[in-house]
Amino acid sequence: MMIVVFSGAGLSAESGIPTFRGDGGLWEGYKIEDVATPLGWMQNQKLVLDFYAQGFEKMQKCQPNAAHFAIAELANHFDVVCITQNIDTLLEKAGVKDVWHIHGRIDYQKCEWHFDIPPMYSEWQCNYKSPINKPVEWGDLCPKCGKHLRPDVVWFGEAVDMRVDDLYKIQNQVDVFIVVGTSAQVYPAANLLKFFQDVPTKYFIDPDPNYELLDGFTVLEGKATKYLPALIESLKEELA
Ligand code: OAD
Ligand code: ZN
Q1: CA of 187 to the centre of ligand 2 (A)
Q2: pLDDT tens, residue by residue, 85-144
Q3: Terminal CA-to-CA distance of the chain, rounded, Å?
Q4: CA-proximal residue: ligand 1, atom 14 (nearest)
Q5: Is 1-17+64-103+157-240's fold the same as 33-61+108-153's?
Q6: b/e burial code for range 198-217 (CB count within 10 A of at least 16 → b)
Q7: Of ligand 1's atoms, which has the minimum distance to the CA of residue 209?
Q8: Domain spanning 1-17+64-103+157-240: which CATH class is it, in words?
Q9: Which fold has domain 33-61+108-153?
Q10: Contact between residue 38 and residue 158 where contact means Cβ atoms under 8 Å apart
Q11: Would you kindly state where each structural domain of the chain is located, as residue ranges?
């Protein structure tokens, strides 16, 4: 029995982390192009680091909600692949062991010349990446090559490592596909809806679902904490 859970910012909304596209979204007075693009980084590293330092402090303080814990519970019982667009670590805090963070994670740093999908010439990259317990500061340099360190998050215009080889390995084995808390507007992540379109049982949990994308899904229109724990309890009974 294999289950894929694909999550977005809505999963962590009830833990106090605002979503990207809702009111009072995550950018809070910052312009996306200033703080979440390679060009923004080239123009003002300090501004980018200040923005992520705030995010780091905030996300450290937040606690998982009932939906994160429900996913952890599911992973205890079944073969669960947990793919998230979120850079927070609330799924880990709830006890999920192996989370695919396709947009990176706030508690890691990497060299500004680290690329998850390597460029054509290997001399144009440095593979330094490490966990952190404090945010990257301006002036923190890569111990391997001396270039600047940066947060391990994916910015607009950067390649996303979708772990395509791993995805193809599981594509035809997935029994249940659960999507929670995403506007499914950001690619390539949103391609997962198409990639797993033939999975026999599919659920989509979101208070504001985009029905155009949801062919074949059972849509649970509401908050993650309202529907996910109940859904997971019923799956446990059904599939046990
Ligand atoms: P969005 O902000 O685009 O969408 C959040 C979704 O969560 C919306 O569909 C909301 O209706 C839903 N939502 C809000 N509250 C919820 C709750 N309590 N329970 C369940 N759902 C709720 O966030 P994402 O789809 O995650 O990328 O955005 C995708 C990517 O866009 C992010 O990973 C980020 C951003 O650019 C990068 O930073 C690379
Ligand atoms: Zn380096």
Answers
A1: 28
A2: 999 999 999 999 999 999 999 999 999 999 887 777 777 789 999 999 999 999 999 999
A3: 9
A4: 10
A5: no
A6: ebebbbbbbeebeeeebeeb
A7: 9
A8: alpha beta
A9: SIR2/SIRT2 'Small Domain' (3.30.1600)
A10: yes
A11: 1-17+64-103+157-240, 33-61+108-153
Report how far residue 216's alpha carbon sits from residue 218's, in angstroms, rounded to the nearest whole number.
7
Residue 166: half-sphere exposure toward Cβ, Cα within 13 Å: 10
Whether the CB-CB separation of 104 and 90 falls below 8 Å is answered with: no
User: Which residue, by CA, sits nearest to atom 32 of ligand 1?
Assistant: 85
Does residue 103 carry a catalytic annotation? yes
178 C-beta closer than 6 A to ligand 1: no
173 CA distance to ligand 2 centroid (A)?
38
Which ligand 1 atom minimizes the distance to the CA of 36? 38
Rounded to the nearest integer, the mean pLDDT of the chain is 94
With a 6 Å cutoff on the Cβ, whether 13 touches ligand 1 is yes
Its pTM stands at 0.96
Which residue is it, tokens 């001399």?
A: 123
Return the ligand number nearest the Cα of 207.
1
Ligand nearest to the CA of 142: 2
Residues of the chain with pLDDT under 70: 23-24, 26
Find the length of the chain. Answer: 240
